[in-house]
Amino acid sequence: MNRKELDPDASASAAFGERLRRSREERGWTQDELADRMEYSGTHISAVETDRKPSTLRFAQSADKVLGTGDMFEKLCRSVRHGALLEGFPEYVGCEGRASEIRLFEIGVVPGLLQTSAYASELADGAVRRGAITAEQAQERVRTVEQRQASLARAAPPLVLAVLDESCIRRPIGEPDLWEAQLTRLLEFAELPNTVLQIAPYSMGARRTFNLPLYILTMPDRSLMSYAESAQRGELERESSFVLPILTAYHQLQAESMPQAASVAMISQLRKGAQ
Q1: Are 198 and 253 in a shared domain?
Q2: Is 171 found in the same domain as 262?
């Protein structure tokens, strides 16, 4: 009997399959025996274990119940479903939806909280064309953008302070109409009573305090957390002793950036050129 070996580090779905196989074998069960207990077919169990079929949430919950693993497989399944998102980002999004203050800095692209649906779709479709993600993962990215924005439309909306590197508004995305609509969205964002929008101009040079995208959250209990991304992963930091220096650097960034009125004027000028 040929046995397909999986590398659990290859993907979240491979990790799920490898863990399912290991848990089953630790109990001395065959695939058919596990299948009978879970009310699935042995073929289905084999397909999940060898990463030929993705687990559904129902399947994962059944595996947890039968194998007595708490919610381990459910959590693994949810990580598979968020495969289009960086590690750590889904957890951040949950915190963002409860925050009373959101401070953000972005480089190169308009941040998700300020994107139009068309802009978000164009970015996701570009990733599909490069082979970086699947079409299904692209849809997940766009849905996440929409869910994040919807979570801000609550009775007591958070204060949102956004500093965008000038590259965010100098790099057109999509057709002129799409880009014009995105610049219009930024101007509308700046007019809201609970927002501040600033541009960190190229002329700042080395005075720009961050070289990677960054988010800082103030929660309702006034606790702080920060979220930063590299190309491969995101990291949510909850320890105040680490977050406070980042908050200080953010205040320095704001002081060096253009005031909102000048930032809005720059965006308005670029929007005229996109028409």
Answers
A1: yes
A2: yes
